[in-house]
Amino acid sequence: MSSDEPLGVVCLIPTVLVFVLAVWTHRPIESLLSGVIVGLVMLNGIEFVPALAEVSLTVLTDSDVAWVILVCGLMGSLIALLLRIGATRSFTETISNRVSDARGALMATWALGIALFVDDYLNSLAAGAAMRDVTDKFRVAREKLAYVIDSTAAPISVLIPFSTWGAFFAGLIVANDLAAEGEGLRTYISAIPYMFYPWLAAIIVPLVVYDVIPSLGAMASADARAQSTGQCVPPEAQYIEDANRSLAPKHDTFAGLGFFILPMACLVAVTVYADNDFLVGVYVALGVTAAAILVRRLLDLRETTETILEGFKTMLEPLTVLVAAFMLKEVNDDLGLASYIVDGLSPLLSAELLPAAMFVTMAAVSFFTGSNWGVFVIALPIVATLGRELGTDMTLLIGATLSASTFGSHACFYSDATVLTAQASGCTPFQHAWTQIPYALIAASISFIAYLVIGFAL
Question: N or C terminus of the chain with fewer C-beta within 10 Å?
Fold first, then answer.
């Protein structure tokens, strides 16, 4: 299905179309599918329908995509159980009794996100479910809640190496001969000081919460709406809120705080024990939680099973967006988008400029494609080759490339973290991305300057 001849600048057309449609319609699924179809027409002409079937099957049978579907769906099931038995309400009330204003609620959200470092999906889904009611009490716009959660999702998972991000990227570092066998994690850790974007994304949150950095653009409008009217959920996202609220606690059931904390602690502990395999952690945590519910007779077997299925179903829309984003990535790979951008810049680079250039280039590719792990897989061999040829410090390059991947996860309106955070927080992916982008660009701009300075200093 891939193009035999380089397509040049026209390979940008599907992705540009996606963003134009997204800004116009605020609908990610339709925008993504339009980009996919246009890209397939470019590659296959009138035979694009069989190609669409092929790329759909390729994506849905890919082990990484299956992993995402299972992890997100089962996390939806686990959260649904905690909502149904009142455990989330217990956690929410405990936090609510310990904070006295909106700033305290947002800082508690920030701290919870850091504590859930093991995986960005866990952070996005669990923190959103736990903190919605707390922030609503103080008239915090859901868009701001989503921003705080997302800023401790991928950024914190990147900075703390004992996470799913750390395990994945440490393996890639070894696979690309940037570290000896068994030394991938050590090399990854040595690059953490150079991961400027995730550091800044996490640090900027308290500055926003305490108004050192004011609300900007669409976030200012969202804040004004919530404060003046008490309407924390944006009107266009009410259907998401209705879906989240459909999993209300059973009227005669009120599980204690331990029923929220223990499943989360189990999830983190098992994930770390299983070599950072988050899917194993989700399965164990879900099984243990369901068993404890049945033993305590908080729900019967039918209610438990139905709640698990309902929780999985609440993830259907965000998973559809993610599958469409994976399809767009497949099409862009066949169009040669990443290679076109990197190859176009390569002749202009020097050892001093390479870190900053790689950050900007890979950040743009990750942002426009919605792919963060995938971009790193494509880019790392190119980065390694350029780094060796130009004599650039490899840990600095690894840090810059991982910063770029984090920016894509954090800022793109159809990246996995953006979609899942929006779902859990109760706003649309576009609303979340649009209100968050000024802060992401602040962190990206400072990161770019830092890579320029350190590139010439080393």
Answer: C
Residue ranges in the chain modelled with pLDDT below 70: 1-7, 247-255, 338, 341-342, 345-348, 370-379, 458
Q: Are 111 and 149 in contact (CB under 8 A)?
A: no
Task: Give the list of residues 6+ apart from residue 17 with CB closer than 8 angstroms, or none.
Answer: 31, 34, 35, 38
Instruction: For residue 212, give the DSSP letter.
Output: S
**Residue 308 — left, alpha, or beta (φ > 0 → left; ψ -120 to 50 → alpha)?**
alpha
Q: What is the dihedral of CA 454, 455, 457, 458, to 10 degrees?
A: 100
> Residue 434: what are its φ and ψ, rounded to 5°?
-65, -35
Residue 301, C-beta contacts closer than 8 angstroms, at least 6 positions apart: 294
How many CB atoms are located within 10 Å of the residue 17 CB? Answer: 18
Model pLDDT, residue 261: 86
> Residue 53: CB partners within 8 Å, gap ≥ 6?
none
Q: Looking at residue 290, what is its pLDDT?
A: 94
Number of H helices and E strands in the chain, helices first, is 24, 0
The residue type found at 266 is C
Write down the residue that tokens 């049945």 correspond to: 294
